[in-house]
Amino acid sequence: MLAVIGLLYTLPHETWPWIRTSALLLFLFAALTDWLDGWLARKFGQVSEFGKFMDALSDKVLTLGMFVSLLALGELGKWALFPVLLILSREFLITGLRLVAAGKGKTLAAEKVGKLKTIVQLTCISLYLGKIALKVDFIQVFAGEEELHGQLIELLKTSGDLTLLAATVITVLSGIVYLSKYWKFFLDEDA
For residue 87, what are the domain limits? Predict the structure, then answer.
């Protein structure tokens, strides 16, 4: 994630060509290897309590870091602050719940709706990174086709915005599902 953010924060005219596209590809690589790691662990029976906890935590670090960075870069509109804060709040609350459960010797695995939430969040971030790459790295490719270039950028922005709203709704709903199922760990000393 730090490498992706580093690629986004550099000035394109002071670095190599296609730097924003490199950030997008690196992000996609991180997201796909995270999925592959989980799939391989399940396929070969290498699922561990530590792996369940760290997989969920690494997803949160990746997505939250990217959402905050996109806000800081001004790539998300000011309106997006509230949805991002809702996502942050849910993620911290669920991580806190998992830590409380871990302190009681229990590992809380991800729910299916939580996995959907992660997919939608990663898709949202990919759309925004795609918009940035298209805007910065593809100017020469669309020379003479500025209107088409602008329309494609706007399409990715609108798609990202709509996906952010969907991600927020799914994130909040998955948090409610998770809390309703595991709230006992906060309330019961013996759970």
Answer: 2-187
